[in-house]
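Key result, reporting period 2: structure in, sequence out.
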């Protein structure tokens, strides 16, 4: 990995720790979520008293209403995050001052501890016997005193010999400790000096347009950019020093980052929460805007971070790793491609632009139907145009992020994660069984009146359609359950929402699952396909 990549990890980790907790949307969402949690807790407390059934019913309706409001607040917060992808970076100075990575030599003073204090030397005054007085002096006191003095002298000589030996031992140990401290200090100063020299070397290499160092620097810049949790942050960079040309191949998030649900509605009389799907044309429009904002944001961060004029031209290809629903195969189409020079881009007032129009103004190619994976002609062929000697691939989240990737979890870990989630949400989970559709649970909702058996399906493959909904509905009926839950990590087709049609079923897609894990289990999960 090397010292430079360690620097990148430290800097990026600090950036990721600075999340958007103080935004107005986040505060509103958290307030609504807290209110929902309080309402649910009050309903559960009232449920234990049969005489308060009416109060329980009222609190239950409040809890469901608050929970629905919290879910809608999550949707609004996600849309706010997507809308602010470009503007949020304009208030951040993307330049990285490499000198800030240098470490001062902070040496604690030598502490000898008890070895630094000489042992108290024996004093003859403490051993000399008292002078005989009165009758004792008359009755052979001198002879007795001589005996006492001889005995005291032997004790004093013995104590002084022991003190001399102990003091010599202390001084030897003090010398050993001082030498150990000096050696440790020498090694520590050597490490800091070497580290700071490497920082200076790297800074000089970047300033001198060394291609590999330039790639490392801009990888740090892009790695510091804070995105929503389910954005990949996976990219390749190449630098052509003669043309001062930076090539970027960036992995775009899938269309599922746009909430497929427009809103949730709770019907208190039917005790049913209905998911209103977002219109496909709006999902497509918003996704095109996400792609455009991410493209402009990336180019902006590169140019703003480049105070040394290393980059005269930037080429950006935005690709997406996803599953073609028509074939079921993994594909990687290019959905946006832009090539621009520094002067042209720097003249754009990004705070006031329409991101889609701006990409087109830069003569960029932007897919009109990214939901159909319609690829555009790339301005560059990354593998052909990039000098392989100066090309590196970076996966920021894979290197610095300890969040579990729900796609690559082992089956036992995936099943345990879901069992923990629904357990925290109040369900009594049975053992998971594995079927052709994925994992399945028979759970119990212990609430009186509104509880009952619950069937849960969880799949990690492609987006689920109406067939999965019909299969879940059949399982609910066969089990005599009151409710069914489908978790589909790969997304949920619009036809699946149509198939729900009043049935007691809930559909949870990947982003919704990430949100639930965060809210209920305090687990910051991610979804990233290889």
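The corresponding designed sequence is given below.
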């Amino acid at each position: 990995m090397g010292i430079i990549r360690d620097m990148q990890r430290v800097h990026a980790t600090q950036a990721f720790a600075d999340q958007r907790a103080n935004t107005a949307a986040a505060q509103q969402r958290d307030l609504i979520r807290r209110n929902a949690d309080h309402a649910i807790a009050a309903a559960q407390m009232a449920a234990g008293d049969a005489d308060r059934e009416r109060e329980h019913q009222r609190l239950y309706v409040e809890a469901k209403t608050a929970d629905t409001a919290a879910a809608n607040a999550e949707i609004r917060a996600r849309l706010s995050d997507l809308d602010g992808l470009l503007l949020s970076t304009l208030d951040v100075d993307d330049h990285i001052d490499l000198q800030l990575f240098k470490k001062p030599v902070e040496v604690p003073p030598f502490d000898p501890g008890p070895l630094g204090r000489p042992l108290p030397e024996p004093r003859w005054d403490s051993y000399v016997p008292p002078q005989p007085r009165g009758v004792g002096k008359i009755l052979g006191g001198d002879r007795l005193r001589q005996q006492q003095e001889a005995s005291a002298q032997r004790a004093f000589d013995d104590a002084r010999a022991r003190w001399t030996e102990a003091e010599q031992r202390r001084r030897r140990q003090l010398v050993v400790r001082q030498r150990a401290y000096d050696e440790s200090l020498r090694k520590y100063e050597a490490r800091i000096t070497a580290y700071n020299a490497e920082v200076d070397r790297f800074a000089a290499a970047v300033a001198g347009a060394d291609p590999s160092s330039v790639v490392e620097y801009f990888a740090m810049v892009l790695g510091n950019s804070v995105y929503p949790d389910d954005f990949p942050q996976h990219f390749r960079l190449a630098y052509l020093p003669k043309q001062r040309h930076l090539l970027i191949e960036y992995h775009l998030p899938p269309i599922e980052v746009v909430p497929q649900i427009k809103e949730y509605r709770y019907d208190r009389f039917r005790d049913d929460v209905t998911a209103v799907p977002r219109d496909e044309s709006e999902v497509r429009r918003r996704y095109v805007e996400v792609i455009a904002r991410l493209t402009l944001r990336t180019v902006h961060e590169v140019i703003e971070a480049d105070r040394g004029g290393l980059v005269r031209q930037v080429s950006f290809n935005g690709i997406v790793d996803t599953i073609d629903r028509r074939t079921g195969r993994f594909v990687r189409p290019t959905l946006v491609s832009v090539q621009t020079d520094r002067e042209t881009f720097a003249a754009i007032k990004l705070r006031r632009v329409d991101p889609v129009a701006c990409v087109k103004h830069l003569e960029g190619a932007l897919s009109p139907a990214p939901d159909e994976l319609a690829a555009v002609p790339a301005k560059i062929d990354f593998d052909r145009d990039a000098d392989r000697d100066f090309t590196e691939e970076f996966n920021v989240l894979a290197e610095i992020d300890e969040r579990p990737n729900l796609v690559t979890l082992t089956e036992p870990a995936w099943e345990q994660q879901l069992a923990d989630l629904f357990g925290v949400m109040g369900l009594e989970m049975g053992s998971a069984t594995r079927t052709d559709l994925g994992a399945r649970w028979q759970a119990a909702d212990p609430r009186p009146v509104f509880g009952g058996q619950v069937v849960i399906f969880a799949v990690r493959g492609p987006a689920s359609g109406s067939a999965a909904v019909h299969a879940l509905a059949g399982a609910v009926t066969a089990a005599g359950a009151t409710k069914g839950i489908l978790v589909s990590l790969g997304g949920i087709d619009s036809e699946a929402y149509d198939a729900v049609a009043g049935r007691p079923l809930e559909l949870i897609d990947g982003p919704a699952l990430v949100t639930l894990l965060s809210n209920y289990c305090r687990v910051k999960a991610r979804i990233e396909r290889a």
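Residues 51 and 423 are 28 Å apart (CA to CA). The two ends are 21 Å apart (CA to CA). This case is discussed further under Risks and Mitigation.
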